[in-house]
Amino acid sequence: MKNEKVFSIKDLHISYGSEKVIKGVDIDIDRKGVIAIIGPSGCGKSTFLKSLNRMIDTIPSAKVEGSIKYRGNDINSDNLEVVNLRKQVGMVFQKPNPFPKSIYDNVAFGPRLHGVRDKATLDEIVEESLKGAALWDEVKDKVKKSAFSLSGGQQQRLCIARALAVKPEVLLMDEPCSALDPIATTKVEELIKKLSKDYTIIIVTHNMQQAARISNKAAFFLNGEIIEYSDTERMFTNPEDKRTEDYITGRFG
Ligand SMILES: Nc1ncnc2c1ncn2[C@@H]1O[C@H](COP(=O)(O)OP(=O)(O)OP(=O)(O)O)[C@@H](O)[C@H]1O
C-alpha cells in the first residue's frame, strides 16, 4: 500500500483555557501494530489520544492547533465528517462503558447508526465482531442478555467488539486494562496483540510491563512533549534520553 502512514502529526499544540498541555508534538504513526503512549500522570497522554479522533471536541475549553493528518487528510478541516473519522478511528476507554442494552444491541449499535438494517447482515457483523474481540464463545448463547450481566473484563471486550463492528482501521485505547483484574488484563492484552496484525492500535498505559509486552513502538511523553519515540525493545533496553531511562526504570512518575 502506498501510504503506510496512518497519522502524520506536526507541531501539535493543545490547551485547556490558558493551560498548555501539548506543546509542539511531531509524530508519524505507521499502519498496523501497537504504539504505546507512556509518561507520568498529567503529561498529556489522554489529551493527545483524544485529539486523534476529535473526541477532544467534547471539551469546550480545549483548543487544538497544528496539523493532524489521518491518511493524508487534515482531521480538523471544516469539510471533514467527524462521524466518518470516528468510524475509521475507534476508541476504547479506561472503564468499560457498555450501553444499557443487550450484548447484541451494543455491538449492532454502530452498524445501525451507519444505516445497516438487514437482520442477517447485522447478525453476521455481531458474530464476527464478538469473535474478533475473543468474546463469542462466552456469550453466544446469551446475546440478548444485558451487557451489564457480563464481568468487567467481558464488558471491556464487548466495548472492543462494539468498536470493531464498524470496521475501523485504528483503535485508540486509553488505559483499557486499568479497571481489570490480572486475568482479564491478560485476556485483553492477548486480544490487543492479535488485533495488531490487522489494526493500528494506539494505547495509553501506565504499566511499563504492559507496554513492553504488547507494543512495537513507544512514545515517551513528558510535560506535553515527546522526549523519545522508538521501537519499544530499543526504548526499554537502550533508551536515548536519560529522562526516558529514569521513567521506565521507575525513578519518577
Ligand atoms: N477536561 C479538562 N479540562 C481542563 N483541564 C484538563 C482536562 N482534561 C485534562 N486536563 C488537564 O490537562 C493536563 C493533562 O491531562 P491528561 O489527562 O491529558 O494527562 P495524562 O498524561 O493522560 O494523565 P493521566 O496519566 O493521569 O491520565 C492535566 O494537567 C489535566 O489536569
Q: Which key phrases capture this entry?
A:
10 helices, globular, binds adenosine-5'-triphosphate, Rossmann fold, 6-stranded mixed beta sheet, 10 strands, 253 residues, alpha/beta, 36% helix
Write structural notes for this entry:
- By secondary structure, the protein is of the alpha/beta class.
- The protein has one domain (5-248): Rossmann fold (3-Layer(aba) Sandwich).
- The chain contains 10 helices and 10 strands.
- It has a 6-stranded mixed sheet with strand order 6-7-8-3-9-10, with helices on both faces. Strands 2-1-4-5 form a 4-stranded antiparallel sheet, with helices on one face.
- Helix 3 packs across helix 4 (119-132), helix 3 packs parallel to helix 6 (152-164) and helix 6 (152-164) runs parallel beside helix 7 (182-195).
- The longest helix is centred in the middle third of the chain and has 14 residues, at 119-132.
- The chain is globular and about 55 Å long.
- The site of adenosine-5'-triphosphate (ATP) has 12 residues, from helix 1.
- It comes from Proteinivorax hydrogeniformans.
- Keywords: ATP-binding, Nucleotide-binding, Transport.
- One of its GO terms (biological process) is phosphate ion transmembrane transport.
- GO terms for molecular function: ATP binding; ATP hydrolysis activity; phosphate transmembrane transporter activity.
Q: List cofactors, ions and other ligands.
A: adenosine-5'-triphosphate
> How many angstroms separate the termini?
39 Å
How much helical structure, as a percent, in the residues? 25-40%
CATH class: Alpha Beta
Strand composition percent: 25-35%
Protein name: Phosphate ABC transporter ATP-binding protein PstB
InterPro entries: AAA+_ATPase, ABC_transporter-like_ATP-bd, ABC_transporter-like_CS, P-loop_NTPase, PstB-like
Keywords: ATP-binding, Nucleotide-binding, Transport
Organism: Proteinivorax hydrogeniformans
